[in-house]
Design brief:
Blueprint (H helix, E strand, L loop, with lengths): L2 H12 L24 H14 L3 E6 L3 H12 L3 E4 L14 E4 L6 H5 L3 E4 L3 E3 L4 E4 L16 E7 L4 E2 L2 H7 L7 E3 L4 E3 L5 E3 L6 E8 L3
Parallel strand pairs: 1-12, 2-3, 2-4, 4-7, 5-8, 7-12
Antiparallel strand pairs: 5-6, 6-9, 10-11
Length: 213
């Protein structure tokens, strides 16, 4: 008997007591989160884990957000920036960089010429330091966050921050194109030599933004 046959046999036995033709609910007894952190502590944990993955973390409020984005683009020397169709226009109101809108006809070579991209996110996971994009209008299509070398991702605090992966999954639609980001793109060879920017942006800047007073 092959390994494949053994695995399929176990699956059939596990589902044998379920009604034919119906999906059987799977019991999930794992913890939804570890510990009982308050909102501020959860956000701090997110910031620490993002930094641990070599993302650059900034904190600001909604009033200062446009000026922070403008400063980050200027410090990067970005002359052009990709902007998703549903990005709040006030976020880019202070930036001097030329806005580039994603079009279906754009090639990867054309997108590679754009120096930065600014997006929102769907949810941010504190325990893993992960940002999740789901292709919503303020995030755009997946390719615009994988080709440019510099990604500024805005996270609304506290409403978009959750403690754990199970909590994030409850908010996400599995039918949408989900992109899970833990730090800038990186890989390493068998000798553990780290190379960044291989499968996506070399630099990830995460802005944790709270409502202004």
């Amino acid at each position: 008997m092959s390994s494949r046959e053994r695995i399929l046999g176990r699956v059939r036995r596990a589902l044998a007591d379920g009604p034919p033709g119906e999906d059987t609910a799977v019991e999930r007894g794992y913890l939804r989160q570890h510990g009982d952190l308050g909102t501020a502590q959860t956000v701090d944990l997110l910031a620490d884990n993002l930094a641990d993955y070599r993302a650059v973390v900034h904190r600001t409020d909604t009033e200062e957000l446009p000026y922070l984005i403008a400063r980050l683009l200027a410090e990067r020397g970005s002359q052009s920036v990709l902007v998703p169709p549903g990005l709040p226009p006030e976020w880019m109101s202070a930036a001097d960089a030329t806005r580039v809108h994603d079009r279906e006809v754009n090639t990867a070579r054309e997108l590679d010429k754009v120096e930065s991209v600014v997006t929102g996110c769907a949810v941010a996971i504190a325990e893993t330091g992960t940002i999740v994009l789901d292709g919503s209008p303020d995030q755009g299509r997946r390719r615009i966050t994988l080709v440019p070398d510099h990604h500024i991702c805005v996270v609304r605090v506290p409403e978009q921050v959750v403690s754990s992966v199970p909590q994030a999954l409850e908010r996400l639609d599995p039918a949408r194109p989900l992109t899970w980001i833990s730090g800038p793109s990186a890989t390493s060879d068998i000798e553990l030599d780290r190379v960044e920017g291989v499968h996506g942006p070399r630099t990830l800047e995460v802005v944790l933004v709270t409502a202004g007073t």
